[in-house]
Amino acid sequence: MMEELEALKKKAYDLAFSYEQQFGSCSQCVLAALKETIGSDKIPDSVFLAASGFGAGIAGGGYTCGALAGGVMAMSCFAGRSYDHFSDLECIRANMFPMARELCDRFEAEYGAQGGTCTAVQTKLLGKSFDLYRGDREGFAQSGGHLTACPSACGKAAVWTIEILHEHGRI
């Protein structure tokens, strides 16, 4: 079982890394990697579609890291509150908040106190953040943003999501 888990984590890392290099939109890259490794029946296409605007810190704005958002969205597919149980506040507090908080804590441990933001991830990995919405895409690309920096953040988010889901008995 542990060897299988390690193989899933490696495959998810590699897929998320590669997808970010090829296609961008970190939230979708993490979701695609997780869908293909642990959640083909759990992560519907509608969730992948819903992640479209989260790339580059929500539409290039540097806000919430898309890789973090993708991980939380994936976890929600495994343990979140459904529409039919919308009034069940305990479900979200007991199931989702602890797992989402763990993922946030891992981002902060890796990328600093504000590590859940795209700006913090870019600053940690590239030495500065780039305004991708307003046209600093060339500087981002030249600094290795899509070559290694954001792909590694996507890979780590996919791995951490698998670890957390496993630790909480969801996979």
Detailed description of the structure:
Helix content is 67%, strand content 0%. It is an all-alpha fold.
Structural class: mainly alpha
The H/E string reads HHHHHHHH
Shape descriptor: globular
Approximately how much beta-strand content do the residues carry? under 5%
Q: What value does the average pLDDT take?
A: 93
The total of beta strands comes to 0
* Low-confidence runs of at least 5 consecutive residues: none
Distance between the termini: 11 Å
Query: Which radius of gyration do the C-alpha atoms yield?
Result: 15 Å
Helix proportion range: 55-70%
Largest sheet: none
Total DSSP helices = 8
Summary keywords:
single chain, 171 residues, mainly alpha, 8 helices, 67% helix
SSE layout and pairings?
Elements: H1 2-23, H2 26-37, H3 45-50, H4 66-79, H5 89-111, H6 118-126, H7 137-142, H8 145-167
Structure, briefly:
This protein has helices spanning 2-23, 26-37, 45-50, 66-79, 89-111, 118-126, 137-142, 145-167.
